[in-house]
Amino acid sequence: MIVRIMGEGQYRLSQEVLERVNELDNAVVAAVDADDEDGFHESFEEMLDVIRSEGEHLGDEEIETSDIIVPPSDTSFEEAAAEFTGEGLIPD
Amino acid sequence: MAGMSGRMSTVIKAKISKLLDKAEDPGETLDYSYTRQLESLQQVKKGIADVVTAKKRLGMQAQKLEQSVVKLDTQARQALAAGNEELARTALERKTLAQTELQSLDQQVAELQAQQDKLTESEKRLRTKIEAFRTKKEVIKAQYSAAEAQVRISEAATGVGEEMADVGLAMQRAVDKTEDMKARASAVEELEAAGTFEDLTQLGSGQDDIDRELAALGSGSMVDDELAKMKAELGQGSTPAPAELESGGETKP
After folding, report:
1. A66 CB-near residues (< 8 Å, 6+ apart)
2. What's the DSSP call for residue B242?
3. Where are the beta strands (DSSP E) in chain A?
4. Chain A residues with CB inside 8 Å of B6's CB?
5. Which of A19-28, B108-117, B156-165, B206-215 has the lowest mean pLDDT?
6. Residue whose C-alpha is closest to residue B112's, from B187, B62, B51
């Protein structure tokens, strides 16, 4: 699976890592639903960290279409409300 | 877990399809995509230049504010030396306000710097990707039959289109931020214009916007402390200073 973090580039994730990201994706949705801003930042940042550290960064010269698009790291809680709904970024 | 979800994905998909739906013939798609990519790259460069301009403007304002802080401090001392405590207080209040503005200005400059860095990175990424696309399109043209080429071209164009959409949205964010700061910069300019007094004696009883803002800020205690410190430095409290400025208010040390 190829994941793009907006403004940062693309990463190739293994199934294993993707599952962790999916869990965090669900945690973000839960935080947004519960109107829990701190919880949102915590889970969202962890999600980005996992993608960055566990994913394989795609070279700039690789031309690939992403399977999943993650909003930019400076996404506000208000913006997140429109983004993380239902099953989140990754359909369960 | 198939397919993209989320609003951002929808936005990106819409942008990509808008980028690609022009040409029908594969050869045309290639050249059309490439032209669009180069245009997009130009826009990003322009966007970066805008951020740099906004940053410079804020930097210049910060310099002016720093000068104001120094000037107001001097004015406060002069007023105090002349025995006009009320005037000294007003100058110190304005100094406090200018310092607060300065802090927020510094923070904004730092934010714009971060935006600039991000955009510069994005520009580099897009440039590399476009270059890769250019190479790939020649290969596709040379090696594949029309039908197969169509599929590969569409894949490559979609991939670069995604990068273009990403950079486009990053630029939009930067532009929005810059606009906010421009509006704020204008407000600070007005404040700066009214912030120091060309002539100490001109300060009348009439309240201006700054005074009202100061009242709302309630910067009183800080100003009191500074005033006391200044008095001590001037050795006031024992010897009354010569009154150069006659503005009526007799102040008791």
Report:
1. A2, A3, A4, A10, B4, B162
2. P
3. 2-5, 9-12, 56-57, 68-70
4. 69, 71, 83-84, 88-89
5. B206-215
6. B51
Dump pLDDT digits (tens) for A5-64: 998 999 999 999 999 999 999 999 999 999 999 999 999 999 999 999 999 999 989 999
B131 close to A (CB below 8 A): yes
Q: Which amino acid is at B68?
A: S
Q: Can you name the residues that pair with A4 across neighbouring β-strands?
A: A10, A69
pLDDT score for B41: 92
CB distance from B247 to chain A under 8 Å?
no
Nearest to A72 by CA among B198, B176, B56: B176
* Model confidence pLDDT, tens digit, residues B16-40: 777 666 556 666 777 888 888 999 8
Report the distance separating Cα B84 and Cα B216, nearest Å.
Answer: 23
Tokens 């906010």 appear where?
B180
pLDDT at residue B190 is higher than 90 = no
ipTM: 0.88
Q: By C-alpha distance, which of B113, B127, B116 is closest to B171?
A: B116
Residue of B nearest to A5 (CA): B166
Say yes or no: A81 contacts chain B, CB-CB below 8 A. no
Reference B124, options B70, B155, B170, B182; nearest CA is B170
d(CA A87, CA B208) in angstroms, rounded, equals 55
Q: How many Å is the maximal CA-CA distance in chain B?
A: 99
- Report chain B's C-alpha Rg in angstroms: 30
A42 touching chain B per CB within 8 A: no
pLDDT at B216 over 90: no
What is the bridge-based pairing of β-strands A9-12 and A56-57?
antiparallel
